[in-house]
């Protein structure tokens, strides 16, 4: 379900999908995906509202997606043998993410 949350970073109300809820002493923190900005943010529970009917039907400007059959790779360096090989990684390197974003721009 899509909600409306107040983003401190953007200083405006945005449509968002709630990813997770974290309970804290002073209330709940919600991790949200902003569907019109393709950003993740944390929002206090008092800054979330139910989305009015007509606004829920407007298509999202951003979508979460993955590259089909593309796995992250990284450079594995063996200092003892003085070799470097490209191999599988658990996550994408920061440099690879930045390079991909530049290609998209």
TrEMBL record:
GO terms for biological process: germ-line stem cell division. It catalyses: ATP + H2O = ADP + phosphate + H(+). The keyword tRNA-binding does not apply. The keyword Signal does not apply. Keywords: ATP-binding, Helicase, Hydrolase, Nucleotide-binding, Repeat. Its EC number is 3.6.4.13. Pfam families: TUDOR. It is an enzyme of class 3 (hydrolase). Residues 3-68 form the Tudor domain. GO terms for molecular function: ATP binding; hydrolase activity; RNA helicase activity. This is RNA helicase. The gene is Tdrd12.
């Amino acid at each position: 379900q899509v909600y409306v949350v107040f983003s401190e970073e953007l200083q405006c109300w945005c449509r968002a999908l709630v990813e997770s809820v974290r309970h804290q002493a002073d209330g709940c923190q919600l991790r949200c995906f902003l569907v019109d900005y393709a950003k993740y943010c944390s929002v206090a529970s008092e800054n979330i509202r139910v989305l009015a009917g007509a606004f829920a039907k407007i298509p999202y400007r951003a979508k979460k997606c993955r590259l089909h059959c593309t796995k992250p790779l990284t450079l594995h360096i063996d200092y003892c043998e003085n070799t470097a090989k490209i191999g599988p990684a658990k996550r994408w390197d920061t440099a690879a993410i930045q390079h991909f974003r530049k290609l998209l721009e």
